[in-house]
């Protein structure tokens, strides 16, 4: 029986590749996509979720979520993802519409209907998850697991201290990490190991429309926008979180204490990670190592399944 996954996202180039991975993997069933403002504004992230799901041939509900952080002004990453969030890619306009109910309601109702069965996977700012927790704390019991693409234990990318998804709404992240569950933090220390090098991209040759119209243009734009050493290729952060849900054995995790800094002038959004336990009980599984070959095999197989019906 396939696992169920609910993806809270802010598409976003790497979100698009993560959604494709989930859709193309027979090991998981996508039960819904919820949007949040993040990489670009909510209008674009919601529209992109709809367009991507239709382009991939998915039949899943899409629910519109929070358009701004809990307490702060919105921040975006359009310099990395392009004005519309998908670089230079223009997908066909979506025929469908988002649900009439808010993403927070959808998250709560979906988890309540299948307690212990759904992997809640957050690959954008954690605003929707924090609001869902505030409204219904029992989601910590109903979710099979919470997997977060965000944070870091050594570095930032939005600031020297903070990764973008956490820095975009530190108060929401602090609420999520302090809740009574054990999230899996798939942060930069892990995701920067998943780089789409030239050798990796050669695996995607021949994937038809998927490769021509979305995958290669997205990676090209991302590669121009993200600074990396020559030969490394751009990292595809969000797919790592989905890969963990599909096969946790691909990623090494270590328990740690993670707290989110909300007040520091230079460190706001930092995920302060203590592997010793000196600062309190361990509350998080922190991703540290990636089985590179198996990871790219997983993506290649999934993307082939997505590409085949597209021609």
From TrEMBL:
Keywords: Glycosidase, Hydrolase. Transmembrane segments: none annotated. GO terms for biological process: purine nucleoside catabolic process. Residues 5-297 form the Inosine/uridine-preferring nucleoside hydrolase domain. InterPro entries: Inosine/uridine_hydrolase_dom (IPR001910), IUNH (IPR023186), Ribo_hydro-like (IPR036452). GO terms for molecular function: purine nucleosidase activity. The keyword Membrane does not apply. GO terms for cellular component: cytosol. This is Purine nucleosidase. It comes from Halopolyspora algeriensis.
């Amino acid at each position: 029986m396939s696992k169920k996954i609910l993806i809270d996202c802010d598409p976003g180039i790497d979100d698009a590749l993560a959604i494709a991975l989930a859709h193309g993997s027979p090991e998981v069933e996508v039960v819904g996509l919820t949007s949040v403002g993040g990489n670009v504004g909510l209008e674009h992230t919601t529209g992109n979720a709809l367009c991507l799901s239709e382009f991939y041939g998915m039949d899943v509900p899409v629910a519109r979520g929070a358009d701004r952080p809990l307490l702060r002004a919105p921040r975006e990453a359009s310099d990395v993802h392009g004005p519309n969030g998908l670089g230079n890619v223009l997908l066909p306009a979506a025929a469908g519409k988002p649900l009439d109910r808010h993403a927070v309601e959808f998250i709560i109702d979906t988890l309540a209907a299948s307690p212990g069965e759904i992997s809640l996977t957050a690959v954008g700012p954690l605003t929707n998850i924090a609001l869902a927790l505030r409204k219904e704390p029992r989601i910590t019991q109903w979710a099979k697991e919470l997997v977060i693409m965000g944070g870091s234990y050594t570095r930032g990318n939005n600031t020297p201290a903070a990764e973008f998804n956490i820095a975009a709404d530190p108060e929401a992240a602090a609420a999520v990490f302090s809740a009574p569950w054990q999230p899996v933090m798939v942060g930069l220390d892990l995701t920067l190991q998943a780089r789409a090098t030239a050798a990796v991209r050669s695996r995607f040759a021949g994937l038809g429309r998927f490769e021509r119209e979305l995958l290669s243009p997205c990676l090209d734009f991302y590669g121009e926008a993200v600074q990396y050493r020559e030969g490394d290729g751009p990292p595809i952060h969000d797919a790592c979180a989905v890969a963990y849900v599909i096969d946790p054995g691909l990623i090494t995790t270590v328990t740690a204490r993670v707290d989110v800094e909300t007040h520091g002038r230079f460190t706001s959004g930092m995920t302060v990670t203590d592997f010793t336990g000196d600062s309190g009980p361990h509350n998080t599984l922190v991703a540290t190592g990636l089985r590179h070959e198996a990871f790219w095999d997983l993506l290649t197989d999934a993307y082939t399944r997505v590409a085949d019906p597209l021609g």
